[in-house]
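Tokenised fold entry reproduced for absentees:

. . .
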Amino acid sequence: MGGTVWYGLGTVAVVLVLVVAWSSLGGGAGGPAATGGVGTQMSLKDLLAEGGSQKCAFMSSTDSSESSGTVYVSDGQMRGDFTSMAGGQSVMSHMVVTDSTSYVWTDNYPQGMMMSFDSMTAGQEGDQAAVDPNALADYSCEPWAADAGAFVLPDGVDFQDISTMTGIMGADSDADVAQ
């Protein structure tokens, strides 16, 4: 059970890193935005729904954190590579959405989490929140020649289904998806 507790804490850490990254971006629902716009307000759901292949960048900062990243979208798939700086620490995190499932992980950590992309706003027990795919951010987008390799999950990262997280502290879980 000791390993399960550490795994659960690691998964919570991944969620918190992403919350910090996205908390500075605001929230709310947005409508479709034009590709190629500089600072166009849209959400991750908007980017995914737009169709086509595009590469979008954003940068945001608050008094306590900075976040930046690039999101690649093509044929109903999405990849996001994000850098967050808070408390003097820089963390690189990633998200791939394929088949309506979101996979999230950070560099130098062998575990990640997976969940339904649509349920990312549901949050978890204990007032922990997942990344909000409806949160608005200023994206600068351009057409992108899609690369299927961008949507491949990394080797060496075990993804835990977040829906089992509430039971992780009390019992061992076999819901790992090794990649």
